[in-house]
Amino acid sequence: MITVLAGGTGSVKLVRGLVSQESKVNVITNVGDNYWLYGLYMCPDIDTIIYGLADLLDQEKGWGIKKDSFNFLRQMEVFGEETWFGVGDRDAATHLIRTNMLKNGKNLSDITKWMCEKFAVTANIIPVTDGGVETRITTDKGDLHLQEYWVKHRGKDKVEGIQYIGADKARPNPEAVNAIQDADMVILAPGNPLTSIGPMLQIKGIRKELSKIKKKVVAVSPLIGNSAISGPAVKYMEAAGIEPNAYGLAKMYSDVCSNIVIDTKDKLLVKKIQSLDIKVYETKITMGNKISEDALANFILKQIHV
Fold first, then answer.
1. Virtual CA dihedral for 240, 278, 230, 22, nearest 10 degrees?
2. Given CA atoms 254, 259, 261, 266 in this order, what sign does their dihedral have?
3. Which domain holds residue 37?
4. Same domain, residue pair 277 and 255
5. Element (H, E) at 243
6. Do 298 and 181 sit in the same domain of this protein?
7. Looking at the predicted structure, is the pLDDT value of residue 306 above 90?
8. What span, in angstroms and rounded, lies between the C-alpha atoms of 245 and 222?
9. What global pTM score does this model have?
10. Mean pLDDT rounded to a whole number for the chain
11. With contact defined as beta carbons under 8 Å apart, do 135 and 146 qualify?
12. How do residues 140-195 score in pLDDT, each as one tens digit?
């Protein structure tokens, strides 16, 4: 059984590759970028994983439903509402049904399970916690929710820090804890280390369980050289005082991870990473299509023995 800790856009490609080759996959998902908008509770990372596994994901954007329409958003604009968050019509239905189920007393885990059934997703998708965790970005112009910083303001302002509100008190999902304990291998997906994987590691119970089995934990780098394959990982790492490369990533994960997959172009960092007592595996980590997704998943499953 494989367990993956995943964000959204940066993680879904590897998750797809793993699910195509492994029958039992648990996906523990980040909730730090969940957001209330228009009275709807949106869970971007959970939805990206579900849509990705249901073959509904808009591949070009990396989020939302492919070929979705945007009549709901146009009507909100008519009403004078802000429309910076690109909610499609079918996507809005997901948020609406989730919000109604929450109001009727269901928790996020039960709702996510129900949604997986509706979308015919066989992987076990588990929110890391049913409690509230909120990733907030401190900028030179003030404090913003991650969605506001990255989507509304397009990541323009200088980042001075990152906060994980509620993470210190959040109770880890018992199913997530079991998925870590029972796994033959745990993979930290190549999501943003500070805003996709980081919020989950800030939950003490999750970090504690990973540290107990760190020999079985494999991190996959989202970086090549000093650049992220996608997204603002470098900007966030620099703000947090972390070297923005595979070595900085390995050092950040060193208490919960004993193995890392890096790109072949980063071979000069191998000895430095090994000095952290972390095994290094080199391969091509960019996933531009299904073949490369499957190839990276196959490399992890066949070449790494934990």
1. -130
2. positive
3. 32-127
4. yes
5. none
6. yes
7. no
8. 9
9. 0.96
10. 97
11. yes
12. 989 999 999 999 999 999 999 999 999 999 999 999 999 999 999 999 999 999 99
